[in-house]
Specification:
Blueprint: H1 9-23, H2 32-50, H3 54-83, H4 85-97, H5 102-117, H6 121-129, H7 141-188, H8 200-224, H9 232-242, H10 252-262, E1 266-272, E2 275-282, H11 291-321
Antiparallel strand pairs: 1-2
Length: about 325
């Protein structure tokens, strides 16, 4: 099998999507992101000691991390396919499955929602702290709901649509390269004194890697909203109006599409390491931030995923008919 080619790509991705929907991201599974994180920590120590220019060190960290990730993925795939076709297929499925996070995002956010429903605000804040970067200790209930809806909307792009798009275009190798970039950004892409220069390359490349997926996610949310009982017209209107109301060039697009579909207002003041950061608002407060908004955001995520997979199946069928 040609790595990243179309051969067997359909079966691999469909199987990976089904696995994700059925069992998500079990804790016993040796997830590649864990090893990416360890690699990044190791490389950062080495590069900081060897390279005096922090910007250059950050570039080398980006190139080395992505390069090693791709090399290991190619080695696993080629080695497995060399042994047996079915083993190669299984490895391709496992690697692809590890890149998709729809079920995991659903389950992690559901822990927050369930705690709020039973009135345990402290527990909801604790669960929320596992999936967002902002301070959660002092959030009231509406702010916890807001953060939960925002993380589902944003990660629909980062954790579902972007990896799927990479799998479609370049197979498990490209998808893992994307996950490496995403992991780098989450670890070093901060505007702090320590990472302002060293993490700049990772942050910029992550913005570039997510530029098209974020906009595709917004369009898929708009198209999928009516299919899951939400407003497609409002989703389109708010995405166009408020999609740029975010410090990130990408995160605002899916958040705005979700806010419009749900009829809620997102954005506002977040606190990071004790420092309040005022962000523009996204959407109109037609409906309250509540469990209904969270449920709607999850339906919207699955709807966007289903539309992408269905669209790809249709295009593949058309190409095969005309091939």
């Amino acid at each position: 099998m040609a790595i990243g080619a179309w051969e067997n790509g359909l079966q691999v991705i469909i199987t990976a999507v089904i696995l994700d929907l059925l069992i998500g991201d079990p804790r016993w599974f040796p997830h590649p992101v864990i090893y990416m994180g360890r690699l990044i920590v190791y490389l950062e120590k080495i590069l900081r000691s060897l390279v005096g220019d922090e910007r250059l060190g950050g570039v080398l960290l980006l190139v080395t991390t992505v390069g090693i990730t791709c090399a290991v993925a190619v080695a696993f795939l080629k080695g497995a396919y060399a042994v047996r076709q079915y083993l190669g297929f299984a490895v391709a499925v496992l690697l692809s499955w590890s890149c998709i996070a729809a079920r995991s995002l659903h389950l992690e956010s559901r822990l927050v929602a369930a705690a709020l429903v039973r009135g345990d605000l402290a527990e909801a804040r604790r669960y929320l702290s596992f999936v967002v970067g902002r301070d959660t200790a002092d959030l009231d209930e509406p702010e916890v709901w807001r953060a939960t809806v925002e993380t589902v909307a944003e990660n629909t792009s980062d954790g579902v649509i972007a990896p799927l798009l990479c799998l479609i275009l370049g197979g498990p190798v490209l998808a893992l390269a994307y996950k490496a970039v995403n992991t780098l950004d989450s670890m070093v892409g901060y505007r702090t004194e320590r990472y302002l220069r060293f993490g700049r390359a990772a942050a910029l490349f992550d913005d570039l890697a997510n530029f098209i997926p974020a906009r595709l996610t917004g369009l898929l949310m708009v198209a999928g909203a009516p299919l899951v009982g939400l407003s497609g017209s409002s989703s389109w209107r708010i995405m166009r109006r408020d999609g740029r109301n975010h410090s990130s060039p990408n995160s605002g697009i899916p958040e705005a599409a979700a806010a419009g579909a749900l009829g809620v207002r997102l954005g506002g003041t977040n606190v990071y390491s004790g420092i309040p950061v005022v962000k523009p608002t996204i959407g109109d407060p037609v409906q309250p931030l509540s469990i209904s908004a969270w449920r709607g955001s999850v339906r919207l995520m699955y709807g966007a995923e289903a539309l992408l997979v269905a669209g790809w199946l249709i295009i593949t069928k058309i190409l095969n008919l005309h091939g």
